[in-house]
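Milestone M4 deliverable, item 7.
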Amino acid sequence: MQRRMLLIPTVLLIAGVAAPQEQTRNSVVRATLENGLRVVIVRDPLAPVVTIEENYLAGGNETPAGFPGTAHAQEHMAFRGCAGLSADQIAAIYAELGGDQNADTQQNITQYFVTVPAPDLEVALRVDSACMQDVQDSQEQWLEERGAIEQEVARDLSNPTYKFVTRLNQDLFKGTPYAHDALGTKDSFDATTGAMLKKYFQDWYAPNNAILVIAGDVDPAATLARVKQLYGPIKQRPIPAHPEIHLPPVEADSFTLDSNLPYELVFVAFRMPGTSSPDFAATRILSDVIGSQRADLYGLVPLGKALVTDFGLAETYPKASVSFALAAVAPETDPAPITAEMKTILASYANKGVPAALVEAAKKGEIASAEFQQNSIPDLAASWSQALAGEGRDSPSDIVEAMKNVTLADVNRVAATYLAVQSAIVATLKPSASGEAVADKGFGGAEVTTVAPTKPVALPDWAEASVKSLKVPQAPTPPSDLTLSNGLRLIVRTERVSPTVTVIGSVKHESDLQTPAGKDGSDDVLAELFSYGTETRDRLAFQKALDDIAATENGGTNFGLKVLKQDFAKGVELLAENELHPALPPDAFRIVRDQAAQLVAGTLASPAYRTNRALESALLPKDDPELREATPQSVSALALVDIKAYYATVFRPDMTTVAVIGDVTPEEARLVFEKWFGGWKGVGTKPTVTLPAVPVNKPAAVNVPDPAQVQDSVELAQEIPMNRFHPDYYALQLGDHVLGGGFYATRLYRDLRQKAGYVYNVDNALHATETRATYTVTYGCDPANVSKARLLVEQELAAMRTTNVTATELQQAKALLLRQITLSESSEDSVAGGFVSRALVGLPLDEPIRAAQRYYTLTAEQVRVAFEKWIRPGVFVQVVRGPAPQ
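Output delivered:
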């Protein structure tokens, strides 16, 4: 379970707002059941996928005094057993449905969301309705879950930006429920009981206090009929009064927090209108204006006064929201000058108003963003949930319509009222350099023994046949795979769900091989220069051209474009102009080079860098290209001619793949790309961009001190002498999904979290490229449990090598992988990104379906043999970031 913080939330424009009564209009069905449950069903035929979001109108605000994490704890416990379903059954069902489920607790809502293949909607609805009917909240289950949720607290308290937001809310909302975060504390959880959680459930988890949102490839009328059958019998209950929010005046404050980031962050924060305020729409536009690359705040970056700047809505509540300006500067920088600059800019907007042109650009951008929201089924469900449950609106289109009607006078009035720099909260996150990485004595756990296979979980009759049915998913519509005359590969798939087009492209490269000796950092400097315009338009003119068509674009080795269908040709023209003819202005180069050198200096001292460096140094041979690194000296010595030479070497059409998804035909896309990219030519032979294979590593253990962390972050990794094309790749992936990927239904989660409570998250993965493969297991835990958790990991890996997985586990892992293939079609971004990533590696575009066919036929013996051959539990490199493990 994770808490979703909505940074500058964007909601969706859906034509045709339905009235509260049950009706069908523009593929939206709405109803209120007799028990008070509000239901919204939105049809989106993008893919055979559906997302369910259950929204309870209670969260951190409604927790008892002294127990700020009660709502969060109850969110966790809904996965520990519901009416007629045990924790193991819930986990097994969700795992076999594809494992894409989660939940979050915010101040005023608690949300449960799951995305499944459309044929599995019935099963997902049954599980959700069972948890609305009752949650077990047993003391025994709570005592097991308590360890995991306390590890989540430790993780978040190790995050400097999380600590900043928590402290900021205490200043802005003193004396109100908004002042305490919904996460909770270790002390409050230690004092919490199962009975207390049960009372919270009975008070707030009622159908008349919930909104059910279903979005995807469904028949709305038939789905509503099934919802009535499953949820209708659940009785409504009296709901306690929600706490009243009385906001005191904001008092100016300033504070400094230690950070483990490679740069210093400076914030100037304000309390702004909440989502229930008629001024919220103007607040959204104001945030977009101040955050624009054409605004004065961003102007601090090209002046060399800041590494990065931004402005946006960080938290949104009904009665108030939080906005802040931020600037990143080099470590050890005096924050006073940049703070003064930010305050001067914000005060100017408050006193003199904002540019009218930027207000119009912001409105265009919000309307276009609403169209793009339809290109993701999970995002579509989230936008409806946020609008109805989070903001109390009738439809996501309400806020978009309100933003359409915002005037310059509205924005200036909000700026004058709320950008009160005299009462702003100013904060600095000051980096604390990591200590040197030190060799650790390593793993000292007990002798590894084989773990006996677990007993199979018996599922209810209504779930058994459905979730355990295995079949290779139906192949999606194949794209058109074209090659332009200059060698550029163009992959196009037409989707008509919205009048938009998404372009994702990549130039295949390997900077560790293509950067000349002594020129390390060239790639980083070049990447930043793409935002400085083109040979024919300077930075501001280029951004204005994008704003005029409400497009978003980024250039570089990984580039992209989102544009309305009507402006597709113009958008591609601008993308080509930026990608093929970047300005690379000398003045900007000098500033960017200096900024990059400062950032490198901070990075080299940061715990994150030293952790990764320790891992790579232990895994790779001494002279491996991946061990090359930029230094402040190498970056400072770069000349503009070096950057231009690097660009000429790396950027070639015959090394480039572009995927185009949206409301455009292959022929339309080909003509436009041929026009604007066709003149791009590659000179000379193609460069070598494939890293050499590496030998197996030796075991090692390293501890990297991180004074900002209260929890240890642990990574176990080993090099495997195989590649992505090896036949055993599929058997290893299948076995890896026996170990993880399905929450409590898979071995590592069951051992480390469900039973032991050592961790909140444990992730395991096989990463394979054309020449290399790495197997990793990562988790976060208290220092005292690092070795205990590793022992359990090694026990499970030893068992995978010596004992065949059970038939139930094999079937579940296959179901998980096969359904994930369908779920990967749930957004246009994931489809386009998948095409590009497969093309760059050299895999066929229909590789997911080919992989499904291989997974379908694999046996338990093949999985065991693959693990016995490739995975060596005793030779992990262990890198621990944080306090010294005990």
